[in-house]
Amino acid sequence: MEHDFQIAIDGPAGAGKSTVAVQVAVKLGFLYIDTGAIYRAVTFAAVKSGIDLADSDAVAAAAAKLNVEMYFDREKLYRIYIDGEDVTGNIRTPEISRNVSTVAQIPAVREALLDKQRNMAAGGRVVMEGRDIGTSVLPRAEYKFFLTASSRERAMRRHRELVSQGYGVTFESMLEDIQQRDNADSLRSISPLKPAPDAIHIDCSETNVEQVVDFIVLKVTGGKI
Ligand code: DC
């Protein structure tokens, strides 16, 4: 059964969006696009070129000329490149995580990335994950989901993830980080984090990944894969 549509998955940091979105994409044979990774790539490129992140014009110029490519295949191999250089690991460091909200709040940066994101999703058969996909990037996506989880649960997940990667971070600092990012993402004037009116809400605090993935796949296929 062929399915040609776009799926938008939005929600706050750490709700489990990426894990869910990847598995949905794999099950449907769709492309997976992580738009947070694009904002992270801009942040990394700006920091690397020594741009002052308070200089909105300079950061926006870096976003406009960002040559970013993403690869995703059924073996869940997900990689991101800037100018052909693999930056998959570089964009997830605590330094980039701390600074990415500042970059994502710059209206000209969001504007510059809008067309890039739409072009990536243009063919359909795509699961696109972010904060404003259902509201702003793909307002006409056929299916929209908004995933949430409590901030403690989300901080616990991020803490586990970073500790397993060898970073010496505390749970309290993660909780503070998540709350600050939620505030910055929800309060920004352009494309704030908020569910589209037609989004289906899923609370992932106590549901496991498989349940959420199965729910979404069933919803979008009506059981006919
Ligand atoms: O999902 P993430 O933590 O990798 O996202 C990184 C940052 O980018 C986060 O601060 C929110 C922002 N972002 C955004 O503003 N809009 C999107 N569509 C995706 C991410």
Task: Tell me about this structure.
- The chain has helices spanning about 15-30, 35-50, 55-65, 95-105, 105-120, 135, 150-165, 170-185, 210-220, and strands at about 5-10, 30-35, 70, 80, 85, 125-130, 145-150, 200-205.
- The protein has one domain (about 5-220): Rossmann fold (3-Layer(aba) Sandwich).
- Helix content is about 50%, strand content about 15%.
- The longest helix has 17 residues, at about 170-185.
- Strands 2-6-1-7-8 form a five-stranded parallel beta sheet. Strands 3-4-5 form a three-stranded antiparallel beta sheet, covered by helices on one side.
- It contains nine helices and eight strands.
- The chain is globular.
- By secondary structure, it is an alpha/beta fold.
- It starts with 5 loop residues before the first strand and ends with a helix.
- Bound molecules: 2'-deoxycytidine-5'-monophosphate.
- 2'-deoxycytidine-5'-monophosphate binds near residues 39, 130, 131, 181 and 185.
